Amino acid sequence: MKDINGGISAVAGVKVSGIKQGKNGLAVIRAEGSAAGVFTRNKIIAPSLVITQQHLEDGKLAAVIANSGCANSFTGTPGLKDAKEMAKLTAAKLGIEVNSVGVASTGVIGKRLDMDLIRSQFDELIRKSNEDHKGSTAAAKAIMTTDTFPKEAAVELSDGTHIAGIAKGSGMIAPDMCTMLSFLYTDAKLDAGTLKDCLQKAVDKSFNMVVVDGDNSTNDMVLITATGRSGPTDLDEFKQGLEHVCITLARLIAKDGEGATHLIEARVNGGLNDHDAALAARTIVRSPLVKSAVFGKDPNWGRVVAAVGYSGAQVDQERISLAFADKSSQVKLVENGQIMETLDADLKEIMGSEEIFIIVDLDLGSGSATAWGCDLTYDYVRINAEYTT
């Protein structure tokens, strides 16, 4: 398996385009095949999720239409009507069945779609649709809200099979999933049931391990479509490839957290089981005190220990080990419950790095997990204090 360029355009059978006008964007992705999705667990869900879940009942999709700037969430019957119209417009322009269209929206909650704008963009959107990398990047940009850069990833398996995805997400990010959209594609030939199983496992190890601020959106969805153009593939390698693509996108979301200046990666080993390790890892990257310390370049590691202690994971404080690291060096802070002597200069260099790794060993079992987050900055407050004004 190797990383490749091209975004979702690297997958045979995918045509894509996107338009961005101010805060409003629109993207269309044409790719026909078996499909599956994973959706937010928020009990308030947007009409786009209602429509897409219905259209996925037969395990197939032929296109996805996605808009940014308006979540079309908590908009009642009128909002459901608008989401249905998005699907109908796409189906009519592409000559496909309306129930084969996935619909996605992201942006401000409680605001109806500007359907006049969307209708006016459709002809240009379809005309620009292509199989070139520029199309993938245009779509990745079109679905951005407070994101500062487009998020794409693609891999090639040993047999030539491609797996790729685009995503958006920057704020209102928490497990189950976050205020994010991701559209994944592969040219492998796989049925919908297999795709669903693979996708859920990949999401649990990637998007469900990202925390920017702990809030949970109403519009989150991850969709995967298999065009089947490359034929059957090794399932184990496919799972590894899909997980790699999802983790790559998840890390990009955490790195691009609203106002973020540092990416935080929390690695927890030695958990009683994987579930406990995941609880501890997610709690570390969710903690406002840990996130604030990282922003201030303050190696206040006691906040990490405290977060692990209230995470719900089984913990024995006399067995915990803790280290801070960057890409090139590591400083042990605690070993088997004992505080280690450290050099301030080494810690200062690590805390100044753009990517900070918090490494915990609970020494209770074989469970392990990794979570991603970012620091909590003044800009995060500013962005969200001024979001609609």
CATH H-tier superfamily of the largest domain:
L-amino peptidase D-ALA esterase/amidase
Low-confidence stretches: 172-178
CATH class of the largest domain: Alpha Beta
| Beta-strand residue percentage | 25-35%
Average pLDDT rating: 93
Q: What's the helix count?
A: 11
Per the principal axes of the C-alpha atoms, what is the gross shape? globular
How many angstroms separate the termini?
46 Å
Structural class: alpha+beta
Q: In CATH terms, what is the architecture of the largest domain? A: 4-Layer Sandwich
Could you please describe the fold and organization of this structure?
This protein has 389 residues and is α+β, with helices and mostly antiparallel strands. It is built from eleven helices and 16 strands. Strands 1, 2, 3, 4, 5, 6, 7, 8 and 10 form a nine-stranded mixed sheet that branches. It has a seven-stranded mixed sheet with strand order 9-16-11-15-12-13-14. It is globular, with a radius of gyration of 21 Å. Residues 172-178 have low confidence and may be disordered.
Question: How is this fold's topology laid out?
Answer:
Elements lengths: L1 E2 L11 E7 L2 E16 L7 H9 L4 E11 L5 H19 L6 E8 L6 H14 L4 H10 L8 E6 L5 E7 L12 E8 L3 H14 L4 E2 L9 E11 L3 H21 L7 E9 L2 H13 L1 H8 L6 H9 L10 E5 L4 E6 L2 E2 L4 H8 L3 E7 L5 E8 L3 H8 L4
Parallel strand pairs: 4-5, 8-10, 9-16, 11-15
Antiparallel strand pairs: 1-6, 2-3, 3-4, 3-10, 6-7, 7-8, 11-16, 12-13, 12-15, 13-14
